[in-house]
Design a protein that fits this description.
- The complex is a heterodimer of chains A (about 100) and B (about 525).
- With about 100 residues, chain A is mainly α.
- Chain A has a domain at about 1-45: Glu-tRNAGln amidotransferase C subunit, N-terminal domain (Histone, subunit A, Orthogonal Bundle).
- Chain A has helices spanning about 5-15, 20-40, 40-45, 75-80, and strands spanning about 85, 90.
- A two-stranded antiparallel ribbon of chain A has the order 1-2.
- In chain A, helix 1 packs across helix 2 (about 20-40).
- Chain B contains 16 helices and eleven strands.
- The longest helix of chain B has 22 residues, at about 380-400.
- Classes of the chains: A mainly alpha (about 100), B alpha/beta (about 525).
- At the A-B interface, helix 1, helix 2 and helix 3 of A face helix 10, helix 11, helix 12, helix 13 and helix 14 of B.
Chain lengths: ~100, ~525
């Protein structure tokens, strides 16, 4: 059994910016332990001389012509926003006051 | 005219082109059928009846005026809810995007509109396409038309169920690890995952960008080919889109109907995708299909792909890693819901965390946390790095196989449709279900699932998976159409003509009161 702890899951949830309830942390700690045990076998065949593949069809330097093309209007860009102020996205405070 | 819903897209297209049926009549028939059966099946999350009839009327007017239109103009189609549509909500099956109407169309959707297809609505799916059963949709399950207590596959269970229940002749799906092919297999329909880069991903809400591919869902191989020809080809808006020109998939499918189409075809059977873990009836139908192929002149070779054993493990590292990064965009600022925390200060960080807690379901949280773990310092090399190396090894297995054979075949899924709840409590049991389909995504090669019979033990559909080398999608259509024809000649009917008749919704109303 891999050693995934509740503290680790809570830290990962913080990194991923997802609040989790204590019950969710308990369940995820269990699930993650099982899943990681099952998938850890990738290291059995991944030898040092095997190159990594990040993309199935390697493409490089995909450019387009540097010309102006139509884009979303301000109204379209803001149409799905949960909150707005005039022509801008309104967001909660970035910094905590404390 | 209820018979219109039974027609293939090609047959309906013939009637439309000859003006024997109008697009409005065809659309109304499908909308009526949706009203009759979908309250129970729940293949659709949104039905755009008025807009569909309006599009249909425009197609009729253009045809009447003598315009030459795409043959599929006026043919109805359902769209998986992972694809952005500027006039319909697009949720990817998630609460976090509830009610979101994108300000733009996915390229594939824009191409459908340009070709005059009639967009019926959006289909249900596992949340952000994470799942193999559609049980992870935030909006409730979709039922399998063959047995309403069973899953329609996933993540594209809605598209497959819509097509299999004659609510639409065509649908779009997306396939990251089998989300088009496995639902096709368990619903007795046809689904194709094109070569990676063959169809634009622009406007497809990203799950794992190096694995995702949009593709056709239909009841016949030829219909899938017609749809592939509409949606495929280079798109400058997707930087991973391949720039080559593609042959017509429809022409390739017609080639498969000619006498001797399978003669001399070299077919590889993958040793690692058989045996233990495969349902007896699945193996039986697969072996019978191989016997038919041999009788038709194909040569069968057993191929070993030793690294396929590691494919599921590699996939469940690569996918969560990419997903955890892709889903970071749901930050409660630009789109989607915003939820304030119960306590603490209202900073952007706290609001984002509370929003994601409320907006994401359990499977999405599980995979984001798993991906965050796989990418974290100290574990990256052992997990994500190793998984990328396995990906190389799987590509090499495919390359070795395709140096000996023209196509590879396996069952599309190890079992027929399972019951709701059967695999929900054990994530690995659900993940292992994709063992047959995942290798194609890791290597970027195209794959197709077509029905190959009913399993004797449960009377449920079994799918045949055909895979071809990257960019040889046309070969899939030739071979798929040939096998479909062979099987239907042998059966004396199509697969979906055997599906149980659907009871109109009212019959279930009282029974379902408590659900």
């Amino acid at each position: 059994m891999s050693e995934i702890t509740a503290e680790q899951v809570a830290h990962l949830a913080y990194l991923a910016r997802i609040d989790l309830s204590p019950l969710e942390i308990t369940n995820l700690t269990h699930d993650l332990g099982q899943i990681v045990d099952s998938i850890a076998k990738v290291s059995e065949v991944a030898t040092a001389d095997t190159p990594a593949t990040s993309h199935p069809m390697p493409l490089t330097n995909v450019f387009r012509e540097d010309i102006v093309v139509p884009s979303l209007t301000v109204e379209q860009a803001l149409s799905g926003a949960p909150d707005r102020a005039g022509d801008k996205f309104r967001v909660p405070a970035i910094l905590d006051e404390e | 005219m209820p018979y219109l819903t039974k027609l293939s897209a090609a047959a309906l297209s013939d009637l439309l082109v000859r003006k024997e049926v109008s697009a409005v009549e065809a659309t109304r028939s499908h909308l009526d059928h949706i009203t009759a059966v979908d309250a129970d099946l729940h293949a659709f999350l949104h039905v755009a009846a008025d807009a569909a009839l309006e599009t249909a009327a425009q197609v009729d007017a253009r045809r009447a005026a003598g315009e030459t239109l795409n043959p599929l103009a006026g043919v109805p189609i359902a769209i998986k809810d992972v694809l952005a549509t500027r006039d319909m909500p697009t949720t990817a099956g998630s609460k976090i995007l509830e009610g979101w109407v994108p300000p733009y169309d996915a390229t594939v959707v824009a191409r459908l509109r340009a070709a005059g297809l009639v967009l019926l609505g959006k289909t249900n799916m596992d949340e952000f396409a994470m799942g193999s059963s559609t049980e992870h949709s935030a909006y409730g399950v979709t039922r399998n038309p063959w047995d309403r207590d069973r899953i329609p596959g996933g993540s594209g269970g809605g598209s497959a169920a819509a097509v299999a229940s004659f609510q639409a002749p065509l649908a779009l799906g997306s396939d990251t690890g089998g989300s088009i092919r496995q639902p096709a297999a368990v619903t007795g329909s046809v689904g194709v995952k094109p070569t990676y880069g063959g169809v634009s991903r622009y406007g497809a809400i990203a799950l794992a960008s190096s694995l995702d591919q949009v593709g056709p869902v239909s009841r016949t191989v030829y219909d899938a080919a017609l749809l592939h020809d509409v949606i495929g080809g280079h798109d400058p808006l997707d930087s991973t889109s391949l720039t080559e020109s593609w042959p017509s998939m429809a022409v390739a499918a017609r080639e498969g109907l000619k006498d001797g189409a399978l003669k001399g075809l070299r077919v590889g059977i993958i040793k690692e995708l058989s045996g233990d873990g495969f349902q007896a009836g699945v193996t039986q139908r697969f072996n019978e299909t191989l016997a038919l192929l041999v009788a038709a002149g194909a040569e069968i070779t057993e191929i070993s792909a030793p690294n396929f054993e590691y494919a599921v493990a590699a996939y469940y590292l690569i996918l969560p890693a990419e997903a955890s990064s892709n889903l970071a965009r749901f930050d409660s600022v630009r789109f989607g819901i915003r939820v304030n925390p119960h306590s603490g200060s209202l900073t952007s960080e706290h609001v984002m965390s509370a929003t994601r807690e409320a907006g994401f379901g359990p499977e999405v949280k599980r995979r984001i946390i798993l991906g965050t773990y796989a990418l974290s310092a100290g574990y990256y090399d052992a997990y994500y790095g190793s998984a990328q190396k396995v990906r190389t090894l799987i590509q090499r297995d495919f390359a070795a196989a395709f140096s000996q054979v023209d196509v590879l075949m396996s069952p599309s899924a190890p079992t027929t449709a399972f019951k709701f709840g059967e695999k929900l409590a054990d994530p690995m049991a659900m993940y292992i279900n994709d063992v047959t389909t995942i290798p194609a995504n890791l290597a970027g090669v195209p794959g197709m699932s077509i029905p190959m019979g009913l399993a004797p033990e449960d009377g449920l559909p079994v799918g045949l998976q055909i895979m071809a080398p990257a960019k040889a999608d046309a070969r899939l259509y030739t071979v798929g159409a040939a096998i479909e024809q062979l099987l239907e000649e042998r059966w004396g009917h199509t697969m979906l003509s055997q599906a149980p008749a659907l009871t109109p919704t009212e019959m279930f109303a009282s029974e379902e009161g408590a659900v």
